[in-house]
C-alpha cells in the first residue's frame, strides 16, 4: 500500500503540472514577435500596448489592431477635450496636385518639434490624400471647407478625419486640428501651379504630397497666339507661386502699364489746406491698396518689373490664386 502511494505520487504530480500548463496556455498566449513588429510598424502605437493587444486576443492580428484603434480613439477624444483650449500656432500646409487639380490643407499642432515628427507628417500626408479624394469625387470647380466640415469627412478606412486626428493626439500628446482645406479644378485651356515653402519636409507617401509652412496655388491661362514665351508655363507658374507666398497679395488687381502710371498729372489751382490733405490721404490709400494687388506688386525674383509686366510679357492671364500660411489669423476666426 505504501509502495503504491509512492508510485502514484510522481504520476499525479506530473498530471497536475501538465494541467496547469494547459490551463495557462488557454488563458493567454505570448505575443508573436513577427506580429508584434508588424502591428507596431503599421499602427505606430507603443510596444507595450501592441504586446498587450496581441496577448489579449491570442495573436489575432485583426482583432488586436481593431482594439488598439478603438482604445486609442477613446483616449484621444478624452485628451483632445482636455487640450482643446491650448493654442496651435505650428503645423504644416500640404498640397496634392497635378496640372488639372489641386488640394491644399492646413493641419495645426502646438510645437514645431511635433510638426517635424514623422508621425505628424504621416498624419498630414494621409489627411491631404483623403481630402483630395473627397474633393475630386464632388466634381466641383472649387471647394473651400473649414474645420467643422472637414472633421466629418469619411476616410477610406470608414472613420472620420476627426478620428484620424485624435488618434495622433493620443500618440503625440498635443492639441491638433485639421483647420481648413481648398480644392481647385482647372478648366479647359487653364493650368494649375503649386508651391510650398520651405520644401524640405519629405512625405513618406508614394503619391506626391508637398509639405511646408506656406503654400500657394495659382490658376492661369495662356494666349493661344504665343509662339515663344519668355518662360515656360511651368516655370512661370512656379515663380508666381513663390511670389504669392513671399509677398502675400490679397487680390489679383488690374494690370496698368508703367507708361500710363507715369503720365503727368494735370496742374490745378491750389485749394485750401484741407483739400490738399484730403488728396494726400486718398493717394496714400490708393498706394496701399495697390500694394495688396498681385499684378501691381514688384516681382519678388526681379524687382525691375511688376508681376503685371511679367505675365503680360508671357501673354498669360492669372485667373485666381490661394495662399495658406500655417497659423495665420483668419478673418472668420476673429468673430
Automatic annotation (TrEMBL):
Function according to Swiss-Prot or TrEMBL: Associates with the EF-Tu.GDP complex and induces the exchange of GDP to GTP. It remains bound to the aminoacyl-tRNA.EF-Tu.GTP complex up to the GTP hydrolysis stage on the ribosome.
Name of the gene this protein is made from: 106068791
Listed name of the protein: Elongation factor Ts, mitochondrial
Any one Gene Ontology cellular component term annotated for this protein: mitochondrion
UniProt-recorded Gene Ontology molecular function terms: translation elongation factor activity
One Pfam short name: EF_TS
Region of interest (Disordered), ranges: 255-288
PROSITE patterns to which the protein is assigned, alphabetical: EF_TS_2
NCBIfam families: tsf (TIGR00116)
Organism: Biomphalaria glabrata (Bloodfluke planorb)
Keywords: Elongation factor, Mitochondrion, Protein biosynthesis
Biased composition (Basic and acidic residues): 256-271
